[in-house]
Amino acid sequence: MSRHEVRVAILGAGMSGVCMAIQLKKRGYDSFVLLEKAGKVGGTWRENTYPGVACDVPSHLYSFSFALNPQWTRMYSPGSEIQQYIEDLVSRYDLGSHIKCNSTVVRASYVGNAWHVDLEDGTRYVTQVVVSALGGLHIPSIPNFAGMSDFGGEFIHTAQWPSALDVKGKRVAVIGTGASGVQIAPAIADQVAQLTVFQRTPAWVVPRGDFAFSNKAQEKFSTWPGLCRFYRWFIFWLLEIRGGFIKRDSRRNQWLESTAREFLLKSVADDELRQKLTPSFPIGCKRVLVSDDYYATLMRPNVDVETRPIGRIYEKGIQVEGGAMREFDVIVAATGFQPFVVNRSIDISGRNGCNLNEVWQERISAHRTVMVPGFPNLFFLLGPNSGLGHNSVLFMIESQARFIIRVLRTLRRAGLSTVEPRAEANEAFNCQLATDLENTVYGGGCGAWHTDSNDHNFTLWPHSTIRYYLTMRGFDPNEFLWQRSGASSG
Ligand code: N01
Description:
Helix content is 30%, strand content 18%. The two termini are 34 Å apart. It has helices at residues 15-26, 44-47, 79-92, 181-188, 215-223, 225-242, 251-267, 271-276, 294-298, 341-345, 356-359, 393-413, 423-438, 465-473, and strands spanning 3-11, 32-35, 99-100, 105-111, 114-119, 124-132, 154-157, 171-175, 194-198, 205-206, 289-290, 303-306, 310-313, 317-320, 325-327, 330-333, 347-349, 378-380, 418-421, 480-483. By secondary structure, the chain is of the alpha/beta class. The protein binds 3-acetylpyridine adenine dinucleotide. 3-acetylpyridine adenine dinucleotide is lined by residues 55-57, 137, 143, 158, 175-181, 200-201, 287, 310, 334-337, 447, 449.
C-alpha cells in the first residue's frame, strides 16, 4: 500500500473541487491533492454530453467571480464550452500536479487526529482536512420498467451518452421532462424520424432568451473587464430579484406563474396538448425549466407527447398502460439523478467510528450546509441545502470555499488542529431551516427529486444567495468545537 501525507484532500475535480483547489493555492496552501475517479476533470460537464446539453444559468454568471470569461459564445453556452472553461482553469492556476485522476476513493476514516483517505487501488492519503466536492447530482437514476432487459435497441441515460451514437433517421423515445429532457428533445427533433416524449408530470417552463454574443461583444468584454463584471452583476441581481418566487404565494411567485402560463398559451395552439402540458403544482415546487424551443418542438409533426404511464418495454419498443406497443430504435432516459448517493457510496467514518450513512439515515443535513457533528475537519461543497433553484450554484461554492479557508486560517493562527460543529448549533440551524422551508415552494408536496421520502427538502437553500453569503461569512466560532492535537473531545 502506498502512503502519502498532505494537508488537504479534495474528493472530486468538478467545478467545486477545482474552485477549492484554486482558493487554497491563492491563499498559500500548497499541500493538497484533488482525487478524481475519472480520467479527467470536469464532473457534471465531463459526464453530460447529450445533444443540447447546456447550463440553464447564463454563462457569465455560471463562471467564477475570480475567473471571468469574456469569450462565452452564447448567453447559455453549451456544455462542451463549460468543460473547456474548467480545463482552462486547471492550466491557468497550474493545478495539474495536484490532480490525481483515476483515483477512486472508497473510504475516509478519522483515525487519531487525521483522516485516512483510501483509494480503490490501495493507496492511502493521510490528511488533516477532507473536502468532499463529489457533487449532489452524479449517480443516474435509471427507472426499472418491466421488460427493460428485453429491449433490442439502444437504452441510454442522458448522463451516459455514447459519443458514437447517431440518432439521425431513428425512432426515439425520451422519457422524462425535467431540465435534461427539455434540452435534448429540441436538439434532436429535426434529425430523428419520430420523437415521442414520455411525460409523467408536466413542468413549468419559462422562456430562456438565449442568443449568441457577437465577436464585437466578446471583444468589448475582453478589452473592458469591468464591463464583463458589470454584466455578470446585472444578471445576478436580475435572478436574485426574480428569486422572490421562492416564497409561497408571493407576488413574484404569482408573476412567474402567469409568465409561464402566457408562454404556454402563446406557444401551443392545440388545446388538448396545452392541457397535457399544464402543471398542477405551484411554480417552483419542481425546478422551473428554461427553454425557448421546447414547446415549439412538441408542435412538430414528427413529435408527440405520451402521458400514459409506461407499462412494459419489449424487444422492439414501449407499451403504455392501455395502449398498443410502439416501436423505437433508441430510448433515452432523461430521468435525473439520485441526489447525494455519491457521498454515501464512500464509506465515511468520523470520531469513534461514527458512520456518515448512519447519521444521514433519517435525514441528510449539515451545519451551515458544510459540516456534520462528529466529523472533524470534514467539509462539504454543495452539501445539504446549498443547492439553488433561482441563481448560480457557483456563487454558493465560492462562499463555501471562502468559509473553509477562514476556518483553516483560524486553526493555523491559533495552533489548533481540529474543528467540528457542536451538536446543539447544528440542531438549531437545521430546525430554523426546516421552519423557513415551510414558507417556500420548496417545502414539498409535488414529489420533486430535491425532497426525501418524508417530503423534507434536503438539497435546496430557501433564501436569497446574499443571505447565504452572509450566513457563511458571519459564523460564530462558538458554534464549533475547536481542539488542539491530542485533546479529547468534550
Ligand atoms: O432530472 P429531473 P434532470 N417514469 O429529476 C421523469 C440539473 N440539471 O436530469 O416529474 C417516467 O429534473 C420525471 O418525472 P416526474 C438540475 O438541477 C441542470 O432533467 O418525477 N418518468 C422528470 O420529468 C435538474 O433539476 C442543468 O414525474 C420518470 C424527469 O424524469 C437536475 O439536474 C441541466 C421516471 C427527471 O427530471 C436533474 O435534471 C440539466 C419514471 N420511472 C440538469 N423517473 C443545468 O443547466 C423519472 N421520470 C444547470
